[in-house]
Each structure stands twice: as structure tokens, then as C-alpha cells.
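FAQ: What does a multi-protein file look like?

Like this. Sequence, then C-alpha cells, then the next protein.
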Amino acid sequence: MLPAVTRTSRRGLALVEKMVGTADALDCYRSLSWTVTGFVILEQTLEESVHHRRVGPTRWELDLDDRSEPSAFDTDELFRTTLGLALDGLERRTTR
């Protein structure tokens, strides 16, 4: 029996193949996978950042110490936006 991560990866790749066809599927799947991995790394290292301060469970304030006003963001909202943009791009590839 295959490990769960392998089964999940194969299911994910199969879904992407249905969206874009087999020629580009692996590159598209990797791009999505790296996007998710990047967010995991980001969320796990924000606590160590000198420019970020947690202001809620998923809310952060960014202060670059450059005399500009700090900006706030929500990592969950940012993740949804980024993943949505990536999936929109995959969908557009299918109409080419």
C-alpha cells in the first residue's frame, strides 16, 4: 500500500490533469504545491520576523521601519486570494 502522501499527490495530479491535460499537468501541480508550501513556511517563520507582529490568530502587522504606516494582513485571506489566482490561471489554460 502506498503512503498517504503519495496517494494524495497522485489524486491532486489527476485533478490537475483533468483541468489542463497531461502535457502541462506536472508543472501546474508543482506550482500549486509550491504555493501551498511557501505559505506553510511563511506562517511558520513570521514569528521570527523583526518586521511582523501578530495581532490575532491569523492577523499580522507589517512595519518596515521606513517611516511608512504599518500595514495589516490576514494570512488565511492572503492564502485564499493567492490560491484563487493560481486556480483562475489554471482554468484559463484550459480555454487556450
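And here is the next protein:
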Amino acid sequence: MNKATIRYTVTTSSMGGATSQDADRYAAALDAALRDRFPGADVEIRRNDRQSSSSLDMADGVDAGEVEQVAKEVWDRADFWDLETV
């Protein structure tokens, strides 16, 4: 069985007034959540602030909809925000 692969790009462009640090924290939280949901998967979270919105680049061996749901849950939970700068 091949190892599952997940590639996701995070950008501040679609995060409202997010700082670079907020985006880094979101990326870290998303990375942790995806590794928890898909143990053993090869997970890579990238930052590209020139891209217009965060997006799933690849979900090989896992359900893309489930990856998107994890990303939504992390976003909705919003515990990555630096509340002092919002």
C-alpha cells in the first residue's frame, strides 16, 4: 500500500487582516490536525501569499473532501489567531 500524500497551500490573502505569524500558526495547526487525522501520511503545508486563497494541492490516498473538512475545522476553531493583533 502506498503512503498517503497531502499537500496544502496557506496564504494570508484570504485570511482578512491576518499577519504572517497568524498564517504560520494556522499552517502549524493545520499540519498537526492533518497528521492526527491521517496518521502516517506525508503532509506538507506550504505558504504562498501571492496565491489568492488557501487550497488543497494534492490528496493522494486520502479523501480530498475529508482534508478540506479538517482545514475548515481548524479555521473555524480559530485558536491560531494572535488575538492581540486582531
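Q: Is there any per-entry metadata?
A: Some entries carry free-text notes. For the entry above: The longest strand covers residues 5-10.
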